[in-house]
Amino acid sequence: MNSEIPPPTGVSFAGSSGEKIPLMNRRRQVLDYFTRMFGNSSSGSEETAKDGYVEFGNIGEATSGRTLGPFAGVFAPVCLSMFSAMLFLRVGFVVGNAGLIETLFQFAIAYTIIVFTVMSVCAISTNGAVEGGGAYFMISRTLGPELGGSIGTLFFLANIVSSALCLTGCVEGLIDNFGESGYLVPVDSYLLKDGHWWRFTYTSSLNFLNLIICLIGATLFAKTTVIIFAIVVICLVSSIISFFLKSPFQIEVPAANIFVNQTNTTAMLNYTGFSLTTFTENLGPSFGRDYTSNNIAVTFSSVFGVLFCGVTGILAGANMSGNLKNPSYSIPRGTLGGVLFTFISYITLSILAAATCSRDLLQENYVFLMPINIWPPFTSIGILTATFSASLSCLIGSSRVLEALAKDCIYGRLLQFVNYGVWRSNPVAAVLFSWLLVQLILFIGSLNLIAQLNSILFLLAYVALNLTCLGLDLTSAPNFRPSFKYFSAWTCSLGLMGSVIMMFVINPFYASTSFGLCLLLILLLHFFSPCEATEWGSISQALIFHQVRKYLLLLDPRKNHIKFWRPQMLLMVANPRSSCPTITFINDLKKSGLFVLGHVKVDKAETNLDYTDKAISSWLTLVDHVKVKAFVELTVANSVRDGLHHLIRLSGMGAMKPNTVVMGFYDDKVPLDYFTRLDSVYKTSAFQGITTNEEKFPLRLPNEEKHLSASEFVSMICDIFQMHKNICICRHFDLYNKTDIVKNIKYKYIDVWPVNFFGPSMNDAYDTSSLFMLQLSCIIKMIAVYKKHTLRVHLLNTIDIQSQRMQLKQLLSTLRIKATIHEVTEWSQIDLRTLDSDRNTYISRVNKLIKNQCAETAICFVYLPMPKEIRGSDLQNVSYLNSLTDLTNNLPPTVLVHGVSAVTSTTL
To answer: Which secondary-structure segment (H or E) carries 20?
Structure first.
């Protein structure tokens, strides 16, 4: 694709052909654009206008090899894959053991699951352009890389197992035709020897032939699918006609049934022709033994496992999506047509077999159709063509799925060899790897045993497809509007539940293992996959949005209770380069509550309407880099104070809105750049630009004027108070080092000073601000880093110190806060009368007192008093800020706290 050609105005693209784009009365311009991008698109492309949109089916089909229609590309492959080894080799096994009634019941279950799954496939495939990879492409582009990649891997394995299954069936047909007592060789002669390793040799030879065809003629095979399908249909019709033309006679036990031949060498099996007695005897179940699997007992689950492998080919058409002219048109029609045709064929064959063949014939001769055919080679040809073509189709399909996994970089370098091993659009390396895996599966040997594993893996793929469609439907995503309308959440749910239930009915061990493997792959891909396919879209995000919206509406602020209070923080960040420690600390302090990073760009809002769109990606990258769980809110305002008002009002949603505003302290310190400091744990080059102008979050220069004045800063504190939000002001967090706190043994305490030093009172320790401080200190103590630290509450030495101590101890006990009470005896040396007469001296002495107690303190929580005048003059505001500055000078990382509402509860 030529990335240098810009799209026409008013047109947006999501990256794949088939995307719907606005018409905008500019159809010609859009067509010209696509012609320049993809070449001449006049051949094979389809254009339909609907609801004001133009939908481009598959631009450039002629040049991309998209030549197949619904019949040759979908219907015929689906029928061949569904017939595979079941049609001519296992109908007798199913009817003979399960009986006709139970067989029809099992077919009803299987086709119910299949039809519901097909509905899901049709819905997904008609909702956009389906590219190479078929079912994997549909699942991964909806469920996302992790779940899509894991299901895609298991779907790849399902095709591998299916190819081995069909090869085993093909060899079984060859042995019954050309082996000992074969139907197409003279009596007492044979062309093929029989035995486990002989069969392995034959299947390996056929597998090697498949490899050669895939390497040199896979495209030719796709073109001859219709011819192969016609041959299979002719053979099927001949078998059906033979039931009406063949007279009753006896059939020998096949040589492969060594268990009967060893005990009764003269045993003969009866073909009765149409007989009411035979039909009645074959109605009920009579489970026997499977002579192809060491004579193991047959059960309902093993019969269903074999039966279901005969209906697992519904995705054969979807696997050919890369070769279809119009996948959205061909896949639904071809797949549904194939399902209906195979259902009629299986039911017809089952009823005719039950009406004409004795139970012994059905149980002891799985190729009974051959001797009763008016011309036995018809059945032989049907077996060989159906099984071999299906095995080849599965090998091709599996290699294409593997190629798609490699192109998506799901497993990173692990599958890189697949991308390198492509010759003339043929994924040679993928074909070789798939062939090798098929060769390993062939060691199992028994068709019936492979069939169970095959059914489990395909059912898992059907679970994923139904889950995909269900998720899309439940999320009510506006862009999910498939042209196929015959589906609903109920059909998806029934297909999903039916698939899961039948997986465990067939084989609980295989089912549990497959789910466990899928979960393991999901976890591995989540943590280690280099794939960053965010452009795919993930249903998880749509489901999360759907559920969050629902629960946000249920989260009624009128029903809030204090005992479930949690901090919901809005941290005002001037520049994240100098604020990383503060961001990390507040992330710990939020205690699973809401955390919002707020930033104000001081400028004219009218000229910066797109600021949020331009800057948000850098801020989200910052959140990932600092590893915090936070949202980001940005605004443009004429002043920082105005921007603060915007953010307080607009941050959060519903009942999840910030109840606490956190700011850094206003001082003259030179801001540090934690992204470039060599000793910083936040060091990164992610935000560095090639030039100074391109650098993200540029720091204010030392001589550059601040956007915020001292008086405005104090006014912001007052505004937060008047907007009824708790206030936290962080100072000295340039000294905060979380790693150092863990390693350095000198840090022993988290200090709380529940006293208003600007106007001390006996009740300070019990007012709202002090209780809020205690709550915050208790929260920070819950963090693993601080669990070894002692929470220390300072009590000033007053006249009634013992009474004060008992009251504070009782308060801590009531609040379930484990803390020590530390009496500050030096307080008695401070003359409170100097608070008004010589305020600076008083504040300096208090600062010294606090500093003397903080030699081993990691974090210090200090009471934040409000200014005496909420709307004071500039002079009053500056005086108040100077007092705060003097109070907290040279302290460890300090949080000044003021609470406005109750946050603690003593009720159960």
So the answer is: strand 20-22
